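Self-study notes.
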Amino acid sequence: MLPRPRKRFGQHFLTDRHYLERIVAAIGPRPGDTMVEIGPGTGILTEELARVLDQLDVVEIDRDLAATLRNRYDAAKVRVHEGDALEFDFASLPAPLRVVGNLPYNVSTPILFRMTGLAARIADCTFLLQKEVVDRMAAAPDTPDYGRLSVVAEY
């Protein structure tokens, strides 16, 4: 049974395995990649990534989910960092870093801005985002959704 999403963390868990295969294919994990997953939640994506990667780091803010992940995976294969991705020291991981995650709406924009500040250390980012966030990222000038996120995403 899946845990109930916690509203305070804006959690929404990936559950559909059909989409999971497409997401993993889009990420294209390879042995030797340095990858970190933000907000692994129940670990459905974590499981697929860990099958391919030599090692995976995950950052989970929910202490209960972090504990479940620690119990589920060998610490040599999946390192669980309990904490907020907005405060996590991504520089503690070797570059180039591949960052993935199913981001909650309420923190997706701050996380995207955080990643732009780490761009020199990051090879790529693959995020699942709500349509409204993507609309703001892809907005054209002089449209209602155009703003700071649009400018930074274009840059």
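Second protein, same conventions, sequence then structure:
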Amino acid sequence: MLAGAGGAAGAQTLPSPGLPPPGANDPGCRPAAAHPDPVVLVHGTFGDMSGSWNLLSPVLRGLGYCVFALDYGHRGTDPIEESAAELGAFVDHVLVTTRASHVLVVGHSQGGMMPRWWMRFLGGAAKVRGLVGLSPSNHGTTVGAAPFAGRNGCEACAEQVAGSAFLTRLNAGGDTFAGVNYTVVQTVHDEVVTPYTSAFLSGPGVTDVTIQDDCPLDPVEHVGIIYDAVALQWVVDALDHAGRADPGFRPVC
């Protein structure tokens, strides 16, 4: 949720660089038959596309995916409903640019949860093949956001506190949509989305992954998960299965 290490005041005053990570946002990219759905990368609170996806983006591009990334919501601090609308407009642009019918979304922290609002309330579900969340704040946090909630302009922080009106509305009626695939990749050492199990989803089409089930010595925490080799193996497997990782997949630790 609070994906960056800086404070909320910094989130307001420090603009996003606006630089796509390597391999991303090529307007000439056309999806190949092996990977027909472009991948959209969505950063977390206090983050940006430049700092979040410098590893994953070129890996996916090298595997033949068309990769796109965006900055949104003043480093993800704006109301999440507004950020979801920004994501929707960006996805529409990606679909027109690539001539694809659906996207695969990979998001970190707020970026793994916020697309669900777009899917549920803004018509996004019809445009998504699968959603992969790295330590997503799907059911909020009991710590981490609380010191910033409602302060320093980080409205998204308050919305990600467990039990908030925003999360109550988002999760009412179930976590998932039929016809959309989901993968959650989470670490037991998550100090931001707490308890760590609050990241997980329930419903059809879901694979919930705890990194330490296969790699018990992996010390990765919330911020580092986007650069963790084990986590990224799970992301690639999920994308290769239209957004739902094979529960039988075994990563190299």
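Instructor comment on the second fold: The CA atoms of residues 128 and 212 lie 29 Å apart.
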